[in-house]
């Protein structure tokens, strides 16, 4: 489902296109800002968005075979709620 399709679904509640777009954009920006600040976002019945850490490690450039040091980094992750897992597996 794309952002455009989500906006169309929100419009089914009676909002105008601009109001629905603003609502979806505000919602997604809120999630992004919370995660950017290091917080997690829990949506009951849906799941939790959180940040995972990847440790620094030794790697290799596949083109040259040179050994390199890959820096530690953070990345977003999602854990589905039991209700969502059940819905998906039906």
From TrEMBL:
<protein>
    <submittedName>
        <fullName>Integration host factor subunit alpha</fullName>
    </submittedName>
</protein>
<dbReference type="GO" id="GO:0030527">
    <property type="term" value="F:structural constituent of chromatin"/>
</dbReference>
<comment type="similarity">
    <text>Belongs to the bacterial histone-like protein family.</text>
</comment>
<dbReference type="GO" id="GO:0003677">
    <property type="term" value="F:DNA binding"/>
</dbReference>
<dbReference type="GO" id="GO:0030261">
    <property type="term" value="P:chromosome condensation"/>
</dbReference>
<keyword id="KW-0238">DNA-binding</keyword>
<dbReference type="Pfam" id="PF00216">
    <property type="entry name" value="Bac_DNA_binding"/>
</dbReference>
<dbReference type="InterPro" id="IPR020816">
    <property type="entry name" value="Histone-like_DNA-bd_CS"/>
</dbReference>
<keyword id="KW-0226">DNA condensation</keyword>
<dbReference type="InterPro" id="IPR010992">
    <property type="entry name" value="IHF-like_DNA-bd_dom_sf"/>
</dbReference>
<dbReference type="InterPro" id="IPR000119">
    <property type="entry name" value="Hist_DNA-bd"/>
</dbReference>
